[in-house]
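TA notes. Do not distribute before section.
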Amino acid sequence: MRHDPPEFPLASPPEGDEPLAPKLEEQGVDELSAETFRAFIATGRLHARLISRLVDTDEGVHPGQFFCLRVVSEHDGISQRELADELHVAPPSVSRMLQNMERAGLVERRDDERDQRVTRVYVTGRGRAFETKFRAVAAGYVKDTIGRLPETDRRELIRLLKAFGETIKSAIAARDGTEPGPGETAQAPVADEVVP
């Protein structure tokens, strides 16, 4: 069963000193793992805050819509079901997001000419302009954050994030009962990315 992320996962969580999971040690988590998790969550919150400040949301476009917009831009005319599969979310979630994006003038939906049961999604001129703008914002974000780390730190961060990603994939596969075979890796769902 698919559990969809919220449509706008990049919105900054409430401020405060209280970590999201302050009692992990009481649940049998070792202190180092708990502290690592807290650092990961804190970094994610800072990432969300900065992205939200960099993207102009006054025009009805939310940062969480940009990954969807990027996929549609790269696959203009993609079916709504294919888009849901690409975003790893359930079709009703994509439908809600697309309704909001249509209201903002970013995309339009049309029935397939050959199969009226299929709805296709097309990016509008306004959508292309916002997608181009966001690519520039994302590039600036990377330069101003990751790009300022020393090269050795960036290489180590890549190694650590890849290793962490593999443990997450493994946990997803174990939960879904789809443990990968030898030489394979589990397919991890991807939600609203904010990468150039």
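Switch to the second chain here.
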Amino acid sequence: MLGFEAVWLAIMFNMALQTSFMTPPYAQAIFFLKGAVDPRLGITTGDISRGVIPFISLIAVGVLLCVTFPEIATWLPGTMVK
């Protein structure tokens, strides 16, 4: 009714959800990495948080591209249905 494709909406939701795994306050991926790193290395949660900034930026660019050009998000699923 609003002109949204269900596949596009699901992909956009998943991309936004991926961002939530790397940004506070939830940041599940950051806490997972903090638990996996060797304590003797002295890597802090702040170090990991600064390290995910480029990845968050890339995801944000991807979301903006998919909002601007919805065909990017629906092209591959469209080829698989045929």
